[in-house]
Amino acid sequence: MERNVFRAHCLVLTFPAQGHINPMMQFSKRLVHRGVKVTVVITKSISNTMDKEATSIALETISDGYDEGGLTQAESAHAYLERFRRVGSQTLAELIEKLSSSGCPVDCVVYDPHLPWGLDVAKKFGLPGAAFFTQSCVVDNIYYHAYKGVLKLPLSETEILLPGSPPLKPQDLPSFIHDFGSYPAFYDILVNQFSNVDKADWVLVNTFYELEKEVVDWMAKIWPLRTIGPTIPSMFLDKRLEDDKAYGLSIFKPNTDACVKWLNDHPKGSIVYVSFGSVAELKVEQIEELAWGLKMSNMSFLWVVRALEEEKLPKTFVEETSEKGLMVHWCPQLEALSLGVPMVAVPQWTDQSTNAKYIMDVWKMGLKAPADGKGSDKNIEEFVAELVLHS
Fold it and tell me: Which key words tag this protein in UniProt (predicted)?
């Protein structure tokens, strides 16, 4: 009976990281809005830690081989990814079989290319598969050229010229490229996204055409590419989806109420928001420079400092800035670019250097801190002051 209600049944396989789950959840909501049944697949280890809000999306789990702790339980990143490939492939196949026997068979699989074996499993069942790249087109293009051997590593050129991109310096490339060999397991997973992408029926990218015209046009010559961004909650975009105010699945426990109450007590456009995401780890000196720079700016600020990073704060900082700042372990964060908010980019690793290059020099939406990811507290103060002056 359920089979006749929906136009199709799409299985969405996510990579177990917040920045990958968010866009795929938003894409899934829009499919549901158009009458498609969607089942989002997450790992058991992620399911055990997630704060699950009410959602119209069905959730199923597979195993990464480390159900109690995920990556933190594995002896190394390489061991985790290898075991995830073996166990994940098997449990994904079992899930597809279970759904078929339950009377609601899967019609297609959308998978994160960080898990290329997801496409292999789909093809084993004769299902069409769509690769969903959660990073920008320009970043995907860089990794593609590394995979093809066109981008020679380690880098020796002082200027990198790639189709669809402006001239780039080595420090503008993702950290796994310009600091080749620093994280070999992560480098492998990023370039191996392209190991079987030619077999995908569609290639979806988390961007929109006007943002990256040149590189989108170039990549569309290689694959059946579609831009499906921006993948943010509808209330911040087109308001087509009622009550779509958040992403829906959070690995961290957000301090939503505290943040909203505090923000409502301040004038619009008067707050500096500081966050480095769910993965990046800053050095003690970087956090100290940022802290005193914020204090010297005399601006009110909302700073997300994960629990594991909290001990790096200067001892007297929270007390000295209690009237100006709010410190939380996590809060919902939306892409600032979509809301026109200027940014100070302080890239740490992975694709952040490339994003920072585009934020400052291509999209003209902010400033980039020094290439080493550090800046004196005076630099931070000046960056904040300049952005406030021109915003």
Answer: Glycosyltransferase, Transferase
As a whole-number percent, the residues of the chain with pLDDT over 70 amount to 88
Domain end among 249, 283, 310: 249
Strand 325-328 with 300-304, pairing: parallel
What the block records as the tokens of 24 is 């795929």
CA dist 56 and 28 (Å) reads 9
How many domains does the chain divide into?
A: 2
Active site residues: 20, 112
Structural domain containing residue 336: 253-390
The enclosing H or E element of 175 equals: helix 175-178
More confident residue, 295 or 116: 116
- Verify that 141 and 33 share a domain, yes or no: yes
Structure tokens, 46: 């992620």
DSSP code for 322: T
> Which residues lie closer than 8 Å to 214 by C-beta, 6 or more apart?
164, 165
Q: Is the peptide bond before 342 cis (omega within 30 degrees of 0)?
A: no
Please tell me the pTM assigned to this model.
0.88
3-class secondary-structure state, position 296:
helix
On whether both 205 and 292 belong to a single domain, the answer is: no
Q: For residue 386, give the CATH number of its domain.
A: 3.40.50.2000
Please enumerate in sequence order all residues whose Cβ is within 8 A of that of 292, keeping only pairs 6 or more positions apart, or say none.
314, 317, 377, 380
